[in-house]
Design brief:
- The chain is α/β, with parallel strands linked by helices.
- It has one domain: Rossmann fold, CATH 3.40.50.150.
- Helices cover about 30% and strands about 25% of the residues.
- It contains ten helices and eleven strands.
- The strands form two sheets. It has a seven-stranded mixed sheet with strand order 6-5-4-7-8-11-10. Strands 1-2-3-9 form a four-stranded antiparallel sheet, with no helix packed on it.
- Strand 2 and strand 3 form a beta hairpin.
- Helix 3 crosses helix 4 and helix 9 runs antiparallel to helix 10.
- The longest helix has 18 residues.
- The chain is globular, with a radius of gyration of 18 Å.
Length: about 290
C-alpha cells in the first residue's frame, strides 16, 4: 500500500476486524485499507448501532446516555478555544448528536454543525436542527471565510482524504480563524504499549492514525500551520470503558465484567482516564495554500 503522505511503500502493520493496517517506514503514518467506496461505507456504517453499542461497530456504548461525560470532556476543549476566540462563529465538523454545537451556542458562539450520519444529525436538539448540515465535508456548503473557529473532535481519524477535506475547510475559515483537531497519537505511551489493542486502532471507522509529525505535515499540505499541541484525558462511563476494552481492546475479561456491571447497574459510574493518548492541535491558516 502506498503511503498517503509520502507515497513510500507502507508495510503491513497488523490485521484487525477483517481489515489491514499499514505503517509507513519513512514518515510513520498508519492507515487502514478500507477497500471500498467511502461514501457508501459512511451511509451504511454510521447508523443507529454505531451510537448504541453494536459490538461489530466497536464504537460508542450509548452516546445519548454518555452525554454528561462527553460534554464534560468538551468543556475542556471549549475553554481552550475561548482563550483564543472568546466568541464568534463556530463550525463543529462531525458533530454527531450536536453536543458541542449546543455547548458552544450556550456559551455565546454562533455555532453550527456538519454531520455525515443521517441518524446522528436527526438526534440533534430541535432548537439546533436548522444549524446542522447532514453531509460529508466534501459536500458541505458554507460561505467562504464564514467561521472564526472550526473544530474536529475525534473526527479526523475517520476521514478518507484528510488533506482534501482540510483544504475545503480552509476556505470556510476566516483568515484569522483557528482550526482545532483532537485525535489519537501513535507516539503516545498507550499506543506503544497496547499496540493492536490500543483503542484508537478501530478499523474500519478509523482510517488514519497520526502523530505530531504526520499531522503537522497534513496540516501544512492543507494550508495550515500548528500553533500549539496539548494532551487531554477523558471522562468515560464504566460501561463505555468496558465496551471499548471488549471491542477494540479485544478483552475477554471485559466481556465478562460488562455483564456484571449491567446486572448491578454500575455502568453509569464516571471514571477519568489520563491516558495521554488524546492529542489536540490548534492551527491557523498559513500565509499561502500549497497546491
Amino acid at each position: 500500500m502506498t503511503c498517503y503522505l509520502c507515497t513510500h511503500t507502507s508495510d503491513l502493520f497488523f490485521s484487525k476486524n477483517g481489515y489491514q493496517l499499514f505503517r509507513c517506514p519513512i514518515c510513520g503514518l498508519v492507515q487502514t485499507d478500507l477497500n471500498r467506496k467511502y461514501d457508501t461505507f459512511v451511509k451504511k456504517f454510521y447508523t443507529t448501532g454505531y451510537f448504541t453499542g453494536e459490538t461489530q461497530a466497536g464504537a460508542y456504548y450509548d452516546y445519548a446516555k454518555d452525554k454528561p461525560n462527553i460534554v464534560r470532556n468538551m468543556r475542556v476543549i471549549l475553554d481552550r478555544i475561548k482563550g483564543i476566540k472568546p466568541s464568534g462563529t463556530l463550525l463543529d465538523v462531525g458533530c454527531a448528536y450536536g453536543y458541542f454545537v449546543e455547548l458552544a451556542f450556550k456559551n455565546g458562539f454562533d455555532a453550527y454543525g456538519c454531520e455525515p450520519s443521517s441518524h446522528a444529525a436527526s438526534r440533534t436538539p430541535n432548537a439546533l436542527q436548522k444549524r446542522i448540515q447532514n453531509s460529508l465535508v466534501s459536500d458541505a456548503r458554507y460561505k467562504e471565510r464564514r467561521f472564526d473557529v472550526i473544530s474536529m473532535l475525534d473526527v479526523f481519524e475517520h476521514l478518507a482524504d484528510p488533506v482534501a477535506d482540510l483544504k475545503r475547510l480552509h476556505g470556510f475559515l476566516k483568515d484569522d480563524g483557528i482550526l482545532l483537531i483532537a485525535t489519537g497519537d501513535t507516539d503516545s505511551l498507550a499506543a506503544k504499549v497496547l499496540k493492536r489493542k490500543w483503542t484508537f486502532y478501530i478499523p474500519p471507522q478509523h482510517l488514519f492514525f497520526f502523530n505530531k509529525k504526520t499531522i503537522t505535515e497534513t496540516l501544512k499540505r492543507s494550508g495550515f500551520e500548528p500553533v500549539t499541541f496539548f494532551r487531554i484525558g477523558k471522562w468515560l462511563s464504566l460501561s463505555y470503558i468496558l465496551h471499548l476494552a471488549k471491542t477494540s481492546g479485544e478483552s475477554t475479561a471485559a466481556s465478562l465484567l460488562e455483564g456484571c456491571v449491567d446486572f448491578f447497574r454500575l455502568g453509569s459510574i464516571p471514571l477519568y482516564l489520563p491516558m495521554g493518548d488524546n492529542m489536540v492541535v490548534i492551527a491557523r491558516k498559513a500565509s499561502s495554500l500549497e497546491r
